[in-house]
Every structure is written in C-alpha cells, then in structure tokens.
Fold each of these.
Amino acid sequence: MKNLFLAATVGLFSVTSIFAQSDVISSQFGVKGGYNLSNITSDDFGDSDQLSSFHLGLFMEIPISERFSVQPEVLYSGQGFASSIGNAEIEHKVDYIQVPLMAKLYLVKGLYAEAGPQFGFKVKEEIDYKPNSDGGETTIDPDDSQLRGFDTNLALGTGYKFNNGFSLSARYNFGLNNIYKDDSAIANLTNIDAKNSVWQFGVGFSF
C-alpha cells in the first residue's frame, strides 16, 4: 500500500509539473480531508445502508485562467456499504487510493463548481460481522476477493475557497463500472451490477 501511495503521489507531481511550468507562482499545493458517506447503487443487490468513514490526501490547484483551474489529487478514501443477512448486519469495508483529476470553475470569487474523472485502486478490504463490537473483522485476501482492484468514477462537487487558503467542499462520486469481478461467484450466481456511491464533505488548506 505504501508503494502504491508513493507511486500515485509521484504521478500527481508529474502531472502538475507539466501544467504548472508556465506559472509556478500561482499554482498551489494543499492538503485536504474529511467525512465520507459511502454505499453502493444496484437494482440487483437489495437493501444496503451507508457507511461512515474518512478521506485524507494531497492536491495541487493549477490555474489555467482567472476563473478556471485543474486540480489533480491523491486521496486515501474509506468506502463500502452495510447489508443484512437474517437479523445480522454486516459491514463491507473497502479502502481505496483515489486519484481524481478535477476541473474547477469559479462562479464568483471563492465559490466554485467542479467535475472530473476519478480512478480508484483498492488497497484494503474487510468484512465486519460484528459492527457494534470488537472481534468481528475479517481481512479479505486480494486473491480471494470478489471485488475488482480498480474502480472508475465521475466526481461532481462544489466548494468555497477563502482568501487565507482555507476551503470547504462537498463532492459526490458515482461509480461507472461494476465493483464485482466478472468471474466472481456473486456475479455469476446473481448477475449483480453494483457501483460505488460516495458523498465526501471536506476541508482543505492551500499553501
């Protein structure tokens, strides 16, 4: 996981250096983090509930014009969903390294709308059979997992950036591909098509 995060971070700075060469002074590096509400969307899965988690990472905002900029990011994002089997509730937790590439349009000073693709790399997966107590977590080996290791999303959001570099944001990420492998048992038996659905509410600071 450390190597993956390092590779993603190197990729972020490689992309930003290409865009920022002509205007290094106005480009801003920053940190961000916040609260996640995650679930899946599926017509085949039945009922599922949201999970609460967090996201944390780095970004670089690169102005293209006075009102438009691009913002590559590298985030660690806790996601997943909850479901019920009989009377038992089970939490399926999936952590990703997410790499969004956002286009930001400032509508007025400070207030912006953003949109862009996001690419996710699964780094950890576990099932919690006792979400309200200790001892129910089972880590899933990647070779035994029924979930894909790569996920593609479209991210839409809005936010406000203050003059001191502090910012507030809200973003919705919806998956574009089935999170289950084509040859997984659950996909073969039930033909499930499930996609990630994540709300992110965050704070950031630009240097």
Note: Confidence is low (pLDDT under 50) at residues 18-24.
Amino acid sequence: MGQKESQKESTYRESLRVPVSWWIIAAATVITLFVIVAVPAGTPAGAIVGGLAAALLLALFLRYGGARVEVDDRRLRAGRAEIDRTYLGDVEALSGDAARNAFGRDCDPKAYLVLRSYLPGAVRVQITDPGDPAPYWLIATRHPDRLAAALSGHSVGRS
C-alpha cells in the first residue's frame, strides 16, 4: 500500500447534476409551450417557441448542474472556486435539518456557498487563511460523509 493508494483514497469527485425530475418537468414545459403557441399561431411558431425554451432550459440546467466538487492531495475545488488544502480547518458533514439550517438561518453571509437545493447534504469547511474573507465554505453534496472523509484524510466506504 504505497503513497499512490493513499492519494486515491483521499480523492473525491462529484458532479452536482440536476435530478431527472427537473428534466421531466422541463420537457413537459417545452411541450406545453409548443401546444399553447402552435394551436392559435401554427406549428412553425410553436416549434420556434418550444425550441427556444428547450435551448434555454438545456443551457441553464447544464450550467447550474455542471458544478463539480473535487478533492485531491493539494486542493479543494467547489463550483468555480478552489483553495489549497493547507488553508482548510475543521470539516463537518451535515444532513437533514442541520444542512437546511446551515444554508438558511445559521448561514454566515460572508461564507462561500455552493448551494444546490435538490441535494440532501452538505459539508462545512472552516477556512484558516487570514486573507480570505470567507470564514467557511458550505458545499452541497449527495455524500456528505464521503466528502468530509476525503477532506479530513479518512476513508469512508461507498454506500
């Protein structure tokens, strides 16, 4: 068990893709818009409106759901930000009410947030860099225990 294996254990990657239910709702919305416009104005007009709505929703979902969380031996990357691991302090896995409250009433306005309302958990990572205005990062995740373990250097099995 060499150093490469221990680096593998501490590596974490997650894509914060939007859930399938959002895509189903988007498809129903595009079909509804097509019908609403096509019935009075004709099929070409419905196709244009439906096509524009589909393109807009596709772009929004891919951008919003394209956020990634990555941990390696040198850095933490969440969304568009990254930080060297030497500036990371305490790590706390949150789920249920604790995660909801962390993003809501208990949230520090200066914190860096990667919020995805459709994800059930979160991880709060204290920032020790005195030059960083954010006291902590709060990162939404499907696997708070695994992300917290990767950040603190422990191994947690997949569930």
Note: The CA atoms of residues 11 and 143 lie 13 Å apart.
Amino acid sequence: MTNNDDQAFEEPPPSYEEATGRPSITHRPQDHPEVPPPLPLRNASSAAAASTKPGASAAAAAAPAATTLSPTAPAAPRPGPAQSFSQLPTSAQQTRINRQFPPLLNLYRDPFPGALQRRYFIGEHQNTPLYAVGAWSGWPVVQSSLVLHNGPTEDYAALATVSYDSWGRRMDVTLPPLRGTTSSDPIAVLAPGMMTAAFRFRVEIPWPDENGGITWRREAYEWRRSNSLAVAGLAGSTTGWKLVRLTNDLPPGGVTVAGSGPPSRDGHEVVAVCTNAVMSMTKLWKFCFLGTGVSGALGERWAVMAVTTGLAIWDREHRRH
C-alpha cells in the first residue's frame, strides 16, 4: 500500500562506505558455511564475525542478553574502519543483509570531555566502541549540533549530522546523498508541540518495483514517549521512547522477525526503543531494534536515521537538564 506522499527513487542510496569514502569491514559469503557456526561472544581474541540464526525472536532481541545476537568483528589494537553487520535471512534465500548496527547498542561517555565539545561513542560494550558521537554546545542554541561518525573516533567522516532549530521546534538530520546525487537535503524531524507529543520524520526505505527491481519510497515514523514492556526490557529507565512505523505494509526480505515488533496502541508496529541507562557512570543510553527494524528489511539508511534521531532526542533532553 502506498499513498500520495510516498516518493520513489530510480536508484538506491549508496552504501555508507561509498558515500563517506571510507571502507567498512565486510563479510564475504564464502567465509561462512551454509550452516552458520555458533555465535561467539565479542572479545579481543575472536578471529571472525558470526551470523545470527534464522528465526530469532524479537523478544530475544529486546532483552539485554541479546547482545550476542549481533555478529561483530574483534576489537583492533587501534581504531580501524567502521564495522558492517550482517544477518542471515531465511534459510531458503541464503543471502545476506549488511547491517550498520547490532540489534542492541549503548551510548557511553568519554571520561575526559572538553569544555564545549562533549565526546561519546556507541557500541555493544564500553571496551569495543563502534561509532564516535560528537555533541557541540554552542550559543545560540541553533549553533548546537550532533555528529555520528563512521568509525570509533572523530577522525572518521560523518555518517550523519543533526542541527537544532533555535526555537526547539525541529531538528535537521543530514545523511549521505542518494546514489546519483552530489548533495543531500536535510531530513526534518518535527519536535513535539501543541498538535503532537511525538518526534516525526520521513525517510526512504527499499521497496520492490513492478519489474522485479528495487525502488525507494519515503515512509513516516514517530518517536513516542513510552513506558511499555519493550522499553522496560532494556533494563534502563522505565520511561523511554518507542519508534513507530506508521504503515502496516510488510517489506520483503529480511529475517523471520520482520513484522513481529510489538504493536502500538493504534496498531502500528514498534521497530525500535530507547531509554536512559541507570546505575552507571559511563553508560548513558540504551537502544534496541525490534521486529521489522531488526530484520534489516528497512535498509541501512533507515537504521542510521533511527539511531541518529534517538541520539538527538537523548541529547535534547540532556541539554535541558
């Protein structure tokens, strides 16, 4: 089902390696047997990444122990390229979906921040940073911004940037340009106001065309404040945010958890949740993909937008406090 607001694109977005000019570590199909090996825990001695088993449940992804669901590369002795994550879809397809993030990730604090430049990073564990996050506190507020880098330090190119409206009515998120273009218009994220209590945005996801190829359509999403069981499953603050996909169309591809995210009160699927961490001096925020969000079927561009907007909401609330 499409509507008049959906926008199709003749070519898909580039990979983030192409858009940023920095290569990512990728997994080649020949590196893995047809039956995936058991998932190793992330540690410095691991020699290779592993794939998740088909049919993994969304509830398992929401639990804190689900960090082992994510295939990861070993931590390098010094900062290396950004990691691409993969999962194995249905056994009949035996194809791979490259993933920019693990199903469950956290935001950690840099213990030695500067006076104005605050530094953070996201990853599954504190000793294995994946992507650096820089937050600049300027004055007026319109000069404040947030940057998600395409690697574990701020030396890496920006994967996404966020700028804040001086009146707090919106945030503008800039992603790498779509294929065939040289620039990318910012995506507006409308902040809660008199008409809504949600953060709203629209972003492109992959979709099949009539000729069997792939086109792209723009879908609407909302971050809604929530104290649901899905948020509680993160074992952080009991009140957080849930990302709701405002369509019930099931995209093709992905693993068997596609479409299985918990429903919101209006019947739409919850595809991600986030909340503040508790009882930790360095872990600040928790994020988890659910259902269609964890399946990979919504694409990397959507995943980066989901994580970036979740970080921006956390940053916005953190500045106010």
Note: The radius of gyration is 19 Å.
Amino acid sequence: MPVGIIQPSNQIKLTNISLVRLKKAKHRFEIACYKNKVLEWRSGTEKDLDNVLQVPSVFLNVSKGQLAPKEDLIKAFGKDKSEEEIVLEILRKGELQVGEKERKEGLERMQRAVVEIVAGKLVEPKSLRVYTPGMIERALDMLSKEAAQAKQEDDKEKGSGTGTPAGEDGAVKKRDLPSWNGVVTNKSAKSQALEAMKALIAWQVIPVMRARMRLRIVCHVSQLKQAAKVVVASTDGDEEGAEKEKKGTVKDRILSYVEEVESQGENSGEWEVVGFVEPGAFKGLSDFIAGETKGKGRVEVLDMAVVHEKD
C-alpha cells in the first residue's frame, strides 16, 4: 500500500519538499527532505537529521509514496546496512533535485554573490576606480562569449589541420587563457569569483587589475643588511634567478614584494615601510618575514583592497 508523506494536519505536496536521488544497482532511490536543509546538513551547519528529513524512509518514488522494497535495498547497499545508514548514504552522495523556479533563484543568488565579490576586488588600472556590479556582470557575459568563440575557432583550426601548436610561435593562445563559462550552483561563490577574476585579468575584455593591499612592514634595522636565508622557489624553474634572490639582503627581498612604496624610514632601531602589494604576494611576504626575522618583524594590513570609489 502506498505510503503518504504526512504532516500533522495534511499531506505534503511535492512542491514543498526537496528530493535527494541516488541511482544504484539499476534502481533510483529517493528520500524526502525539507527545503534548504540538505545543503546546510552537508556543510555541517545543520546537525539534527529530524530538521532535514521529511520521512526517515527510502522510496522508489516519493511523489507516489512508493517505498523501496527491502530486497532492492539489500541488493544495492548490502545486507549489513540498516535503513538509517542507507538514508545517510543517499543524503551524502545523492543528487539534490530542485524545481525550475528554485534552480533559477539559486543561480541568480550565486550570480549576484560572485559579481559582488569580483566588483569589490578589481579596479580600473589607471584610476584605481571600482567597477559597478552591473559593469562586471556585462564584462563576464562578454568574456563567456569571447571564450566560446575562441574555442569554436580553435576546434575549427584543429579540424582543418591548420592550427599552430600551443606555444610554437611564442605567443599566448586564447585557448590557454583561464576561461569563464558562467556561474554554477555546486561551487562556492568565493572560488568562482577567483576564477572569474583570473579570467577577466587574462582576457582584459575591460581594463582590470586586482586591487592591491596596503601594508605596513616593520623589521629591526640590524637585520636589514643580512643576507636572506629563506629561499622562495622560482616559479619558472629559473635556477639562476633563484640564486640571485638567495644572495639579496633582507631589505632587498622585502622591497621586491612591494610594487609601490608610499613611505619608509627608521625610528628607534626599527625600519618601517608602507606600500602596496599584489594580494597574491601577501602570503609569500608574510612567510619570508616570519622566517627571516624569527618573529621580530611583522606585516600589518592597512587596507585589504585599495580602491577609489566612483563619484
């Protein structure tokens, strides 16, 4: 007999639930969950399964109230697993089903989140002014179209046999640049924003650069002229370049991280420099200071992202 999904007062309509499906042993198993709770449980913010599961049972078809036969569960998951363990496996590994409306709303929320992050971290190189979210959104749309067109042209060249192998003429091929194909809902907004920024900087569909960090670096004067002992591995495999850096002084190496010095000077036995650093260099600089000064030097963040707001 079909089993209905019942709340205290009435039967729950399918539109009020989220389904999680897992295909295994030629069967599709389903569990019925409360909306918005599956992702919270998977991220660890929701611990109570009672707040996640509508019904602690496994179904073949939730909308029809068709429970999964015991023999199907044994065949798919093994005889040693309890139904509770099977429910947890489906909850962990299953595909979350959402309606078209929810999918569209989720995609729009993710789009806004990604655009806002990018807009806060990229600037116009000359003026250092920020772009509005609308301008960033249009730039990402342009980027998606350019990347798709470049891929089509590349595929056409490969098909005709006239394409130049990557790197053969010394030029950077568009197909080798970071690409952007739009937002997805199964990745974090932060990670997608980083991908979007890399692609925008590489393609330059609009003039952009990362907003630089403004730092204060303090080091004891007695350490400045010492030969740097901490060696940062060369990113391009240039051993000669790495050797040159190894011979530099502590002060030389610190200043090599700073793109633009705002001020520097000595006071009470300490040397202080305030300047602008590309965000990607911050960790290397911090590690270098920590390793060379044995905790006596420090790096202070004055501004996470230096920008000029639009009038």
Note: The radius of gyration is 28 Å.
